[in-house]
Design goal:
The structure is a homodimer of 94-residue chains. Chain A has 94 residues and is α+β, with helices and mostly antiparallel strands. Chain A contains three helices and four strands; from the N terminus they run αβαβαββ.
Chain lengths: 94, 94
């Protein structure tokens, strides 16, 4: 159960956007996932919106953006200083 | 009528995030706006989420994120080449 929830999350980082687009398409086409959640923090947030829009507009017209949530996460760096970073979760549904 | 709608939009660009935070707070405190819409394209999308989170968490706890929408806009550059850019609209409501 936990495993199948885990599989439907794609964490967006610093790779080229098309790697994430392919990851999302693969999740949907494996057949089990009707929902894929994109998660990112900080500067990767812009790329996350790109990935959602590209999947929806270019590859999977049957996929819709179901929900978008933002939040703030507290981060402690290696040198001990703390700071806040914004996060986003975009839920795609087919 | 058109003017009062115009006033409630804050376009997020490349300035420091606190200028936009102040702009949003000013819009709300002028008294007329119960809704302020943040709009951005491309890399400014991350900053837009930062601005929304900072306003909500640090300055105006009575403000909520009411809606988040993403879209794709076609852009023609000065050299004539066309490309697509992602856009975001975050609606804040008090």
């Amino acid at each position: 159960m936990a495993e199948s929830i885990e599989k439907d999350i794609v964490y967006i980082g610093n790779k080229p956007q098309m790697s994430y687009v392919l990851a999302v398409i693969t999740q949907f086409n494996e057949g089990k996932a009707s929902e894929v959640v994109l998660k990112a923090r900080g500067r990767a947030i812009s790329r996350t919106v790109d990935v959602a829009e590209i999947v929806k507009n270019k590859f999977m017209p049957n996929v819709k953006i179901d929900d978008i949530r933002t939040s703030t996460e507290a981060i402690t760096r290696e040198d001990g200083t703390a700071s806040n970073v914004s996060a986003i979760e975009i839920t795609l549904r087919k």
